[in-house]
Amino acid sequence: MMTEGDFIGVWQHAYDNHNEIRRSNSCRCLGCRERFAPSEICRWIVTSKGDRKIFEGNPVGKRDLAKHASAFCPYCDEQYVIGDASGYPLNDAAFIAQVFSVGPRIFFDGSHH
Ligand SMILES: [Zn+2]
Q1: How far is the CA of 109 from the centre of ligand 1 (A)?
Q2: Among 6, 43, 46, 107, which is least packed, fewest CB within 10 Å?
Q3: DSSP result, 29-77
Q4: How many domains does the chain have?
């Protein structure tokens, strides 16, 4: 049984998630619930030393850039993408709905950055 804290923890996988998405076969957006391949992602936000900038393209192979890159959903353009390498049951609609119900507001108001 997952607690609310566990569901909030799932949101961590939507941030700085480039490495995880590289290891994933498919991704799911927590917002629009779309499923897509990692290769469909073409926009990232890269944070470095407090700077945030948008990177267009797929930064595979650009190691230093990739480390702090977070994916935008190619369908709704929100930063709500989780890769299946996270180990979460991304096919489970009830799970996705519960994750979404605890965030992202709590997450943004919380401890991240
Ligand atoms: Zn989406």
Answers
A1: 21
A2: 6
A3: ETTT--EE-GGG--EEEEEETTEEEEEES--TT-HHHHTTEEEPPTTT-
A4: 1
CB 88 within 8 A of CB 54: no
Report the predicted TM-score, pTM, of the whole model to 2 decimal places.
0.84
Report how far ligand 1's centroid is from the alpha carbon of 59 (Å). Answer: 20
Range of the domain at 46: 4-109
Q: How many residues does the chain have?
A: 113
Distance between CA 55 and CA 43 in Å, rounded? Answer: 6
Helix (H, G, I), strand (E, B) or coil at 12: helix
Cα(72) to ligand 1 centroid in Å equals 8
Residues of the chain with pLDDT under 70: 59-66, 105-113
Tracing tokens 């049951």 back to the chain, one arrives at: 89
